[in-house]
UniProtKB/TrEMBL annotation:
The organism's taxonomic lineage, starting at the top: Eukaryota, Viridiplantae, Streptophyta, Embryophyta, Tracheophyta
Entry keyword set: Electron transport, Membrane, Mitochondrion, Mitochondrion inner membrane, Respiratory chain, Transmembrane, Transmembrane helix, Transport
Protein family: Belongs to the complex I NDUFA13 subunit family.
Statement: the UniProt record of this protein carries the keyword Electron transport: yes
Intracellular or extracellular location(s): Mitochondrion inner membrane
InterPro entries the record matches: GRIM-19
The protein's name: Uncharacterized protein
UniProt topology in membrane: Single-pass membrane protein
Record field: transmembrane: none
Record GO cellular component, one term: mitochondrial inner membrane
């Protein structure tokens, strides 16, 4: 829609003559914002933590040695997987760098061939 149709005047009017439309808050104001930080104290909590750490229901402060052994074996498995993945990613990074080095090495020859082809 053009300015002339809105104002019913021919041509453009000055910006100063336009009505001021300003946004404001809704009637009654905005709803309160939740801003509290809820940072968990541990990544494992609740029933799973009690199970992994060997909590036995009915025995306050005592741990079942079999469950403690299970937790230790889970942690060892986790460390082994993390180390293995880290070494694998190191190898992948080395292979990528080798590929890029080979590309950089032949780039001048490819550029020279392209220049010869484009020459008149």
């Amino acid at each position: 829609m053009t300015e002339a149709m809105i104002r019913k005047k021919p041509g453009m009017a000055s910006v100063r003559e336009m009505p001021v439309l300003q946004d404001g808050p809704p009637p009654g104001g905005f709803a309160p914002a939740r801003y509290a930080r809820r940072i968990p104290t541990s990544r494992i909590h609740g029933r799973s933590r009690r199970f992994l750490l060997g909590h036995v229901p009915g025995r306050q402060g005592q741990q079942d040695p079999q469950l403690k052994c299970r937790f230790d074996s889970i942690m060892v498995d986790l460390v082994v997987v993390v180390v293995h993945e880290g070494l694998f990613l190191k190898d992948v990074k080395a292979l990528k760098e080798e590929k890029y080095a080979a590309r950089r090495a032949i780039l001048p020859m490819l550029q020279a061939e392209e220049d010869e082809r484009q020459a008149p």
